[in-house]
Design brief:
Elements lengths: L6 H10 L7 E2 H7 L6 H11 L10 E2 L16 H8 L4 E2 L2 E2 L2 H4 L6
Helix pairs in contact: 1-3, 2-3
This protein binds a DNA duplex through helix 2, helix 3 and strand 2.
DNA sequence: CGGCTGACGTAAC
DNA sequence: TGTTACGCCAGCC
């Protein structure tokens, strides 16, 4: 595999690996890519990722499990509905039992 | 080349 | 416990 991937593409690759029913955080992805302080940049990359159907951006939330980027899905409830469809419980724009559904790109 | 922005994170109050 | 301020890094104007 070519490692010529851009920072954005690297983020996409990780997000694409997120299994069904699981979620991850921007900081986790950033740290996995070696840019622990670039969590913001990861979120910025996701802004362009939502255009790609291959990237389940709805499975990426902030460190608190909050759906901070839900308004970027076109609909305010789009992200929440997608997560609920995967079996997640969303209350107050926050994923319940977030620690149990959290997935790490390590495996 | 310089400055602004942003789907975050951590620290401080 | 909730809110505010700052830092960090990559992309874009």
């Amino acid at each position: 595999m070519s490692q010529q991937h851009d920072f954005f593409e690297r983020v996409y690759e990780v997000v694409r690996k997120v299994p069904y029913g699981k979620v991850t955080t921007y900081g986790t992805i950033a740290r996995f890519l070696g840019a622990a302080r670039s969590a913001r940049t990861v979120g910025y990359a996701m802004n362009a990722a939502h255009a790609l159907e291959d990237v389940p951006a709805h499975r990426v939330v902030n460190r608190n499990g909050m759906l901070t980027g839900k308004h970027h899905f076109g609909g305010i409830n789009t992200m929440q509905q997608l997560l609920e469809a995967e079996g997640h419980i969303i209350i107050g724009d926050k994923i319940q039992d977030f620690d149990s559904v959290l997935w790490s790109p390590n495996e």
